[in-house]
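quick one, 216 residues, struct below
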Amino acid sequence: LSSFSFFFSHHISTMEGGMVLTDNEATADLARIMRAHGWIREVKSRRGISRQFPGIDERFLFLNLGFNLRPTEVQAAFGLQQIKKLEKFIEIRRFNSKYWNDRLRRYADYLMLPEEKSGTRHVFFGYPITVKPGAPFKKRDIVEFLEAKGIETRPIMAGNMAEQPALGLFEHRIAGDLAVSRSVMRNSFFIGNHHAIQEKEREYVSDSFDQFMRNV
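---
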């Protein structure tokens, strides 16, 4: 399976919601069931399922636990229009990232910047930065400075999931010391890279980094 989120800050938006893709029909039907209260109403195999439960009206047969995750027609209308603009949005996000790489490369002794691997096309949800070991400042220092300048930051998603309290609700095991995950959680952060960011915003972000570094 693969998943996509259509939240407001992402490449295309339906305001909320997302999409799951799979090439397995049984898995697709399970996803349809779970998105609609466990209901079989929208699954392709509902006839075969209903024959197993002849005493239950097929229109109201609940096969599994589920949620109310069905998108609305208004969300679909938003999404269909956004898809037409996707390539332009990606072009802007890639340009922003290249600009920041060019401007911030002078601080490579202190900051690890994103790199695009050969043969790939990275579309940059955000612009990730890692404060390297030995830098004369910590992640918190630069994050607090940027926030004070009106530049919002975010952790790299949930960081090390093994440290999240929600994991304690489930039986699990931890393999290894998760050194990289712990490092990302403590030393890495995002700045925004929305396609609404233009020249003025790009320069302001870069100038703010310059100002911080002059005071290190």
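Helices lie at 25-35, 46-52, 73-83, 86-104, 139-148, 179-187, 199-214.
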